[in-house]
Amino acid sequence: MFYIIIYLLFYPILKILTYFRNKKSKNLIIQTAKIGDYVNTTVIFNKLKNFDIIIDKINYPFAKYQANKIFIINDYKKGIKNKLKLAFTLFWNNYENVYILMPNSFNLFLGQMSFAKNKITIQHYSNKWYEKVLMMGMKKIIHTKETLTIKNYLKMINENDIEKNWKNLPLIDDKQNLITSNKFKVGISLSAGNKLKTIDNETWEKIFNILGEFDLEIYFFGLENEKIFLEKIKPFIKNNYISLFGKIKLENLPFYISQMNLYISSDTGNSYIADSFNVPIITLEGPCCFKEQKPTGKNVLLLHSSYKSFSFVFKTAYKSKYDNLYAITKNQEIEIKEFITKIYKDSQSS
User: Fold this and answer.
1) Range of 309's domain?
2) How far apart are CA 159 and CA 42, in angstroms?
3) pLDDT tens by residue, 210-221
4) What is the four-CA torsion angle of 52, 246, 324, 298, rounded to 10 degrees?
5) pLDDT at position 152
6) Are 136 and 67 part of one and the same domain?
7) Is 137 left (phi over 0), alpha (psi -120 to 50) or beta?
8) Could you tell me what percent of the chain has a pLDDT over 70?
9) Residue 113: which CATH number?
10) How many distinct structural domains can be found in the chain?
11) Residue 167: predicted pLDDT
């Protein structure tokens, strides 16, 4: 309600001032979600080419290679003065198109205050009534829990091609590269920012037993504080493994993940980065809904949970009343082995 009142108060004067803005034709993307959603947003980068972006600070290491002007939303969240400062900056930038991919009340307020010619957003199952009011006058893409999010992102720009864009990120020269082996390489995320995405030890034991049947190396990706998860599963690992916890700058993460022959995790940002490079993926569903968001590459094994999904893109769960969310069946173990066998054989023959 607060943002509606502020917008209505400024509307008359800003409407007049629109006639004094410099003529420009630029795009603005507002996507303040975390890494996985940011990665999926890159499908619209190719079409727009030149754009400014509003992001969460965690994605700055990626965005600085991809966008023109970058606004870190975390710098403007506190205090009405900071919020208005950003709103007026967007207004004077005179964007032609504004794409609001994370439609919370603040982001929708910024979209309205931009007075852009075209404002496009996502209307979803968790929008509050005041957010729907803030969407008035915008083109709305309707999103449900059974709609693939990435396809709705593409609808925002009238496009169909699912191609994520990491073309401008830095490469690593041979002297700096932490990966020098020519063996079959398996990347693994043991956890994520949301600890609900931590796969249980029993399931990892089954997966590592399967990996142990192949001559390969395992690479663990994650933050320094995620080392604790590795300590608990060490007894199950039969292959040579390399810990990359805390050793990789975020901006270099896509390069290292692109070197993998296979990536295994729950629904993590890293799995979507792997998907961007067409790295074969095994993703365990857990609480997340594959109907709404999943890797879209050609070589993906999706392992469904025995529980009904209860965590969604726009309504994320952080706690669970269920145990063994990631438990896999005997049939799924067979699927995993068959999937790895095919990829392994293909890599040896190429």
Assistant:
1) 184-349
2) 13
3) 999 999 999 999
4) 50
5) 95
6) yes
7) left
8) 98
9) 3.40.50.2000
10) 2
11) 65
